[in-house]
Design brief:
8% strand; Neutral zinc metallopeptidase; single chain; membrane; alpha/beta; transmembrane helix; globular; Uncharacterised_pept_Zn_put
């Protein structure tokens, strides 16, 4: 899904840091809401939850700019930059998702974006890049190490198309929408298992990502008056569905161990993730994303 070259990238809610943070290993169960959310919810793509530990030094979150060794966000100016630089693609996608949800939710507020390399300190605790992209409700920030996009292709077999990457960003912002709606904590209700709160939370974020895709090419940037993105192609949708399936719990478990254990699922099956993204994309209706009431999650 290609950005219109004339769109202007707003980096005001983005910050960046170089390598560091994320010291130690172990699951932050006892760290209050933040630690539990990171373990159960924020490890959105299910890579390695053992990488998350309790917070020791909160640091600063969400300040625009760049820390030592981080990506220089001033490189991200237009849609052309978003089409050629992954970090700019993350920021521009966030701009687009913000614009879509601002139309759907009158009280929507933007999350912050933090680009990092290797490791990062967050309001939910330190994390390493092995965690994959995640959202921390304690500081209302979505965290991205863009090296994950290559991992998504090389390790999990997803296609490398632009909408596969943009889907990841829209999914994380979907968790922010859940946070604003007061639904994020529902992941703590039966946090594991194929019908548990963790899976229902993740599948709803997939559905919210689909909603963004539904409106992405028609939502216009206020400052330029033009749509953020060009219309979706069949290939774009195929890329998004490929990414959604590649991070299904069943796919990851089978690749890692040769067997599938639904009782330990936290994110949902490949078919379920594809299904709920499609529901959001086809309907454009947030009410259709009520995974908490759905009887059949994994169609």
């Amino acid at each position: 899904m290609t950005f219109n070259e004339g769109m202007q990238i707003d980096t005001s809610t983005t910050s960046s840091s170089g390598r560091g943070g994320g010291g130690g290993r172990g699951i932050a169960i006892g760290g209050g809401v933040g630690g539990l959310v990171v373990m159960v919810i924020a490890l959105v793509l299910g890579i390695d939850p053992g990488s998350v530990t309790p917070q020791q030094n909160p640091g600063q979150y969400g300040a625009p700019g760049v820390d030592a060794g981080g990506f220089d966000v001033s490189q991200c100016r237009t849609g052309r930059d978003a089409n050629t630089i992954d970090q700019c693609k993350v920021i521009a996608t966030g701009n687009s998702v913000d614009a879509v949800w601002a139309q759907l939710m009158p009280d929507y507020t933007r999350p912050s974006i933090r680009l990092f390399q290797g490791g990062v300190d967050t309001g939910c605790g330190p994390a390493t890049t092995e965690v994959g992209p995640f959202y921390c409700p304690a500081d209302q920030t979505a965290y991205f190490d863009t090296s994950f996009f290559q991992e998504l292709t090389d390790r999990f077999g997803a296609s490398g198309g632009p909408l596969a990457k943009e889907y990841v960003v829209a999914h994380e912002f979907g968790h922010h929408v859940q946070d604003l709606k007061g639904d994020l904590g529902r992941a703590q209700q039966d946090p594991t298992g194929p019908e548990g709160g963790g899976v229902r939370t993740e599948l709803q974020a997939d559905c919210y990502a689909g909603i963004w895709a539904h409106y992405a090419s028609t939502t216009r940037q206020e400052s330029t008056g033009q749509p953020f993105l060009q219309p979706l192609s069949d290939r774009d949708i195929s890329d998004a569905l490929s990414a959604a399936a590649s991070v299904g719990d069943d796919r990851i478990q089978e690749a890692a161990t040769g067997r599938v254990s639904p009782e330990s699922w936290t994110h949902g099956s490949a078919a379920g993730r594809q299904h709920w993204f499609t529901v959001g994309y086809q309907t454009g209706d947030p009410q259709a994303c009520d995974t908490f009431s759905a009887r059949d999650l994994h169609q």
